[in-house]
Write a structure and sequence with these properties.
This protein has 158 residues and is α+β, with helices and mostly antiparallel strands. Helix content is 41%, strand content 11%. It contains 5 helices and 4 strands, in the order αααβββααβ. It has a 4-stranded mixed sheet.
Length: 158
Amino acid sequence: MGSVPSHKPDPAKVRTALDAQLSALDEPPYDGPEGLAELLGAGVTVVLRAYERGARPEREITRFAVRHLLDRLAEAAPGRTVEVRVPPYAAVQCVEGPRHTRGTPPNVVETDALTWLELATGRLTWDEATAAGKIAASGSRADLSDHLPVRRDLTPRA
């Protein structure tokens, strides 16, 4: 069985959601490159900015940002051994090894959107998030530290 293809959102919908978040932050509309990867990257950055300001990010752009980085993880670590969940936004299966076919997988990682975005961009390490209790991980293969971050280029650690 081949790998699961990543989700490809409509760039126009991403742009609309991105501009809605920028507007909510009292910032001008997005004026950067219009490619899907660039729009999604800008979405990740603006959602993190909303969190930094203590604002609740807009749901739609948060969903796009979380899904984008989960898809990047699944591309970088293909497989079906670990299920990574970021409720209520998305979940993916990744990491090579034995796969499950029914029921709850034996290796599960679950976290919130902010923690996932910080892990995936390198703002937070796996060890820091685990020590702070920000990750629920079960199973012998549920350590993603070897696969993170997935987008160092978006928001480097200060």
